[in-house]
């Protein structure tokens, strides 16, 4: 049997266990916000809250990031997530460590069917995608959380029981130094796909019956491959099944091989079996060393509601979708960004509890849409009937010759920031605003994310208001969390230089038009001929500000 080389394992950081102050106490301490689970969504939420000056307790049963064995896990971070990380202060580290890409190729058999460039429709300062092993993103988030200093981050704290109360949630927690009980005004479950909290509360996740199975190989090659995303619909070197090929940090390639549902997961992960697949793909003389090999399987699921009383579900605890198009981890990060500012404003008494209901009203339909999109990809990549096989062959054959058919080749519609449907707080619905580069009237450069990183306020962009309008508006919004900026014109407001790209992206631009951008960079309102009273009403509507936190 051939001996395969393995690269040295990643050295993951380990943080110390600190006995919590509640140990030995007979009366449970009360905390406004408790987050359980230090994966990407839980850490993003804790960091988001800390950035806004809001304290939280974060419990995790481990004392490191990623998983032991240092597999890459999630690797592909989409533009919206990168923009969130820009606001949270870790984007530069991610960009420096990761692999930026926008170009991809899709193959059927040995032939390229089509290629794409995701940069074409972007106006953001962040690229369409960066590839980076998940544990690095978690690592950077932890260090940023510790730097901000407001989060009580408790390692080796495992939640063993959860009980809903009339005005909160009670948690029993086990640690190496003993057990204790705490209470939370609001509990956020970020414990992942197999959430024990969801199970304890008896909430049905509606898991699919079938399991999609893959084998992941994290590999270093002696000779570099092209820095592009390559996808095979029906790879001849993988028995006609799908294959993904990505470059990550540290010169490590992530290659995902689709497997039969009934495969022997231990067998497919053996070095000699994984090595044979690589040589079948890249030739018998390819030189490489393994970093990690392992099976991956999932069953998609979706909760009916992401809020149950005082408990909120984010990330994989709320939804699991096929990995095609990188809609899983990115969606969890965006759950956190949606919920963070709402928790902050409610905690600060600046918005009503109905604002927290809007988390479910927005993110559950987004997850449902992602599930529909990725399920179609799964059916295309793993046809379940002769008719589906025939359809796929016809689409692939057409795509090689006709541009119209290329949109039908479905190897995963890449992750996008979901729009939100019309709702009481969003009469017209909402869509994401990219992180546009902006320039102040005095010539200084800024970005939308830099503006949103300062406190927890909406941004109001008013195109060429008069001085009289500006003065009246400042009076009308005096008690509201809104930062009012003029775009062009001559008013007393802080002013951005007029920019056609900005106007087009926002769908505004005529003198007097007003765009309300929420703290999560979603356009919440567009007023063609804004008045001070209409602006104040739009802000109150978006924030449920007519109510008070009970």
UniProtKB/TrEMBL annotation:
Cofactor requirement: FAD
EC number in record: 1.14.13.127
Transmembrane residue ranges: none
GO molecular function, one term: 3-(3-hydroxyphenyl)propionate hydroxylase activity
EC category: oxidoreductase
Location of the FAD-binding domain: 32-372
SUPFAM superfamilies on file: FAD/NAD(P)-binding domain
Database matches in Gene3D superfamilies: 3.30.70.2450, FAD/NAD(P)-binding domain
Alphabetized UniProt keyword annotations: FAD, Flavoprotein, Oxidoreductase
Source taxon at top rank: Bacteria
Name assigned to this protein: 3-(3-hydroxy-phenyl)propionate hydroxylase
The organism of origin for this protein: Variovorax guangxiensis
């Amino acid at each position: 049997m051939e001996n395969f080389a393995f690269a040295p394992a990643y050295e993951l950081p380990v943080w110390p266990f600190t006995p919590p102050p509640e140990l030995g106490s007979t009366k449970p301490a009360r905390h406004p916000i408790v987050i359980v689970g230090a994966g990407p969504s839980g850490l993003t939420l804790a960091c988001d809250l800390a950035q806004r000056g809001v304290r939280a307790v974060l419990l995790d049963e481990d004392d490191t990031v990623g998983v032991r064995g240092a597999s890459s896990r999630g690797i592909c971070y989409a533009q919206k997530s990168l923009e969130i990380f820009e606001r949270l202060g870790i984007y530069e580290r991610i960009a420096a460590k990761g692999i930026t890409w926008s170009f991809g190729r899709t193959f059927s058999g040995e032939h390229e069917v089509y290629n794409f460039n995701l940069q074409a429709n972007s106006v953001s300062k962040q690229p369409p995608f960066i590839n980076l092993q998940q544990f690095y993103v978690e690592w950077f988030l932890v260090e940023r959380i510790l730097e901000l200093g407001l989060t009580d981050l408790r390692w080796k704290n495992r939640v063993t029981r959860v009980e809903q109360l009339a005005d909160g949630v009670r948690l029993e927690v086990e640690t190496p130094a003993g057990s204790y009980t705490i209470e939370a005004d609001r509990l956020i479950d970020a414990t992942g796909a197999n959430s024990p909290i969801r199970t304890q509360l008896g909430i049905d996740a509606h898991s699919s019956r079938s399991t999609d199975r893959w084998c992941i190989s994290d590999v270093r090659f002696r000779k570099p491959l092209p820095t592009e995303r390559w996808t095979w619909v029906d790879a001849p070197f993988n028995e006609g099944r799908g294959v993904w090929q990505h470059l990550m940090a540290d010169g490590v390639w992530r290659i995902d091989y689709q497997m039969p549902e009934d495969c022997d997961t231990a067998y497919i992960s053996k070095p000699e079996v994984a090595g044979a697949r690589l040589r079948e793909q890249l030739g018998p003389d390819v030189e490489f060393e393994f970093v990690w090999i392992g099976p991956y399987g999932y069953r998609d699921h979706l909760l009916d509601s992401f809020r149950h009383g005082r408990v909120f579900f984010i990330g994989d605890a709320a939804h699991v979708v096929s990995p095609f198009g990188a809609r899983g981890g990115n969606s969890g990060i965006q759950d956190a960004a949606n919920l963070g500012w709402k928790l902050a404003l409610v905690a600060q008494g600046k918005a009503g509890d109905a604002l927290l209901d809007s988390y479910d009203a927005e993110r559950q339909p987004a997850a449902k849409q992602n599930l529909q999109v990725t399920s179609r990809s799964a059916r295309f990549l793993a046809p379940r009937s002769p008719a589906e096989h025939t359809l796929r062959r016809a689409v692939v054959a057409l795509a090689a010759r006709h541009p119209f058919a290329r949109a039908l080749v479905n190897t995963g519609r890449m992750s996008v920031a979901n729009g939100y449907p019309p709702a009481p707080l969003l009469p017209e619905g909402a869509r994401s605003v990219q992180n546009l580069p902006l320039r102040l009237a005095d010539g200084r450069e800024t970005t939308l994310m830099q503006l949103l990183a300062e406190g927890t306020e909406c941004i109001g962009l008013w195109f060429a208001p008069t001085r009289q309008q500006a003065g009246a508006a400042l009076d009308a919004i005096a008690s509201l969390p809104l930062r009012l900026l003029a775009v062009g014109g001559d008013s007393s407001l802080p002013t951005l230089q007029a920019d056609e790209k900005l106007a087009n992206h926002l769908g505004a631009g005529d003198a007097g038009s007003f765009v309300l951008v929420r703290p999560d960079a979603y356009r919440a309102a567009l007023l063609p001929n804004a008045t001070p009273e209409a602006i104040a009403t739009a802000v109150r509507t978006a924030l449920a500000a007519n109510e008070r936190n009970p």
